[in-house]
Amino acid sequence: MRRDSFVRVKPEWVDHYGHMNLAYYLVAFDLATDVLWPALNLGEGFRARGLGTFAVESWQAYRRELLLDMPLAAESEVLGYDSRRLLIAHRLYHAEEGWLSAENEVLFLCVDLNTRRAGMWPEDVLAHFAAAKVDRAPQRLAVKPPRP
After folding, report:
1. pLDDT at 2
2. Distance separating alpha carbons of residues 103 and 74, to the nearest angstrom
């Protein structure tokens, strides 16, 4: 998918070592998810249908530190999905110099917001997943068969 510049490292994200604190990498990855959702027919319109996406597992790898005010760009991909789950990957880059700072994989469930239980992806959403899926294996997470 596209690599979009979307945020700069904020002062409140920087810790006592002078670099972006690990908690804020998750914030940046979550912001990247918000950028990705419309392309997958998720987000505001999806919620209006009474459905949501809940993260159930994530993995992060930190490759190079980010400092105050550095511009960030994210590249996001669909790695896998089934009738209830979606596995995405994000890569966080320095938006101007292009080097990789961190990687993230997140496993989401489709959730019926009325019952707060796992639901099924609508067919139109599954079609968007299929169109966006890349042929790359996840590094850590997987879409696993449901438990009996």
Report:
1. 56
2. 10
Q: Which amino acid makes up residue 47?
A: R
Nearest in space to 41 (alpha carbons), one of 90, 81, 93: 81
| Domains of the chain, earliest start first | 3-132 (3.10.129.10)
DSSP assignment of 34-103 equals: HHHGGGGT-SHHHHHTTEEEEEEEEEEEE-S--BTT-EEEEEEEEEEE-SSEEEEEEEEEETTT--EEEE
For residue range 89-148, what is the model confidence (pLDDT) as tens digits? 999 999 999 999 999 999 999 999 999 999 999 999 999 999 999 999 999 999 987 666
Token pair 């690990």 is found at 22
Model confidence, pTM: 0.92
Beta bridge partners of 127: none
pLDDT, one tens digit per residue, over 67-86 is 999 999 999 999 999 999 99
Please check whether residue 89 is in contact with residue 103, taking contact to mean a CB–CB distance below 8 angstroms: yes
Q: Are 119 and 94 in contact (CB under 8 A)?
A: no
The first and second tokens of residue 50, run together, are: 């009474």
